[in-house]
Design brief:
This protein is an alpha/beta fold. The chain has two domains: 177 residues, P-loop containing nucleotide triphosphate hydrolases (Rossmann fold); 135 residues, 2-Layer Sandwich (Muramoyl-pentapeptide Carboxypeptidase, domain 2). It contains 13 helices and ten strands. The strands form two sheets. It has a six-stranded mixed sheet, with helices on both faces. A four-stranded antiparallel sheet has the order 7-8-10-9. The longest helix is centred in the C-terminal third of the chain and has 22 residues. The chain is elongated. The two termini are 17 Å apart. The structure holds guanosine-5'-triphosphate and magnesium ion (MG). Magnesium ion binds next to α1.
């Protein structure tokens, strides 16, 4: 369960995949990035970002035809992918038929992996890349055309981002993708931080001042605020690669059940410290989780938080 998250960057050759990686994670200057050689097969990079404790394993799939054919013949290249980032060069001439064919073959591989090995399907995001700041208005027609073409393949629910290495759009979009794809990590991040304790104090004060307020309402509001604040912090944080993961952040308080990947199980953070989880603590934690899930666009889940006692510990399942 402590494996890194696999993010696959996929697309045709020269779409700009390696440039995006280098721009966002290696902070190369633009002159260097422009000299990026074509990727031979797959370049794998393990990234430890300060805010993602388990790290991300980035698989940059070289897009030349011979390599694409090799991947499609061996689904193992794609197994256990959690996030797919398809990069489409909007400046490339043509009708996107090659992209379409490639993407459809990959989607088919994931459907087969789900049926044959019960592997979870990845979340898919599309970068409409090379929307450079100086060309944005000139290429509106081409951008609109590529969105229509892409939505025929993925359906309209796949999120699209207009990106370029010539501004911060690619890095911000990547941050966004990570934020919405890794709720477990985000929640962990919140509960690891001391500000959770600070906010708990503020809530307790607020309740003392205005006893007519329901503790659930207050904690929900604070949870909401906290979730939003975290989103802002996260999105504006530079994607900085760090060499070592702090040992503290490896201590996970969220365990995802081995049997069912569809829910999170979290120990009440106070239970171990004070050896008890008061009713009030439980309600506050509950409200926080609900608020944070809502800010992560997981509001359906937030309606379904259950509290259970197990082996003398208190857990939340959602
Ligand atoms: N105008 C423009 N050019 C870009 C942008 N991003 C990348 N490029 C250029 O696109 C070309 C190909 O970039 P790469 O990053 O090597 O493309 P790739 O998708 O990794 O290609 P393969 O490794 O062959 O699959 C390079 O000349 C880059 O400078 C962008 O945002 N705007
Ligand atoms: Mg490359």
């Amino acid at each position: 369960m402590n494996e890194s998250t696999k993010l696959a960057i996929i697309g045709l050759s020269k779409a700009g995949k390696t440039s995006i990686y280098r721009r966002c994670f290696e902070r190369h200057n633009l002159k260097d990035i422009e000299q990026t050689p074509p990727t031979i097969m797959i370049a794998q990079n393990l990234i430890n970002l300060g805010h993602i404790s388990k790290g991300i394993s980035i698989w940059d799939f070289g897009g030349q035809k011979t390599f694409r054919d090799a991947y499609l013949l061996n689904p193992d290249y794609f197994s256990h992918t959690k996030i797919i980032l398809f990069v489409v060069d909007i400046l490339a001439n043509g009708d996107f038929s090659e992209e379409k064919e490639y993407f459809s073959s990959i989607i088919k591989i994931f459907e087969d992996l789900k049926i044959e090995r019960n592997l979870e399907k990845p979340k898919i995001f599309v970068f409409l890349h090379k929307c450079d700041p100086d060309k944005k208005n000139k290429n509106n027609e081409q951008i609109a055309k590529s969105i229509i073409e892409m939505s025929q393949i993925f359906g309209s629910e796949v999120p699209y981002f207009m990106t370029s290495i010539y501004d911060d759009s690619a890095c911000r979009s990547l941050n966004n993708i990570l934020f919405f794809s890794l709720p477990e990590e985000i929640i962990n991040q919140v509960f690891m931080r001391e500000f959770f304790d600070d906010i708990k104090k503020v809530i307790s004060e607020k309740i003392k001042e205005t006893p007519q307020l329901q503790i659930t309402e207050v904690s929900k509001v604070f949870g909401d605020l906290l979730g939003r604040k975290l989103h802002d912090l996260w999105i504006n944080a530079p994607l900085e690669k760090i060499e070592e993961v702090e040992s503290k952040s490896l201590k996970s308080i969220i365990t995802v059940s081995e049997k069912d990947h569809n829910y999170f199980k979290m120990r009440c953070p106070y239970y171990n410290i004070e050896k008890k989880c008061s009713e009030e603590d439980c309600i506050i934690v509950h409200g926080f989780i609900a608020g944070i899930l809502t800010s992560l666009n997981l509001s359906k889940r937030s309606l379904n938080i259950k509290r259970i006692e197990e082996n003398g510990d208190c857990y939340f399942i959602f």
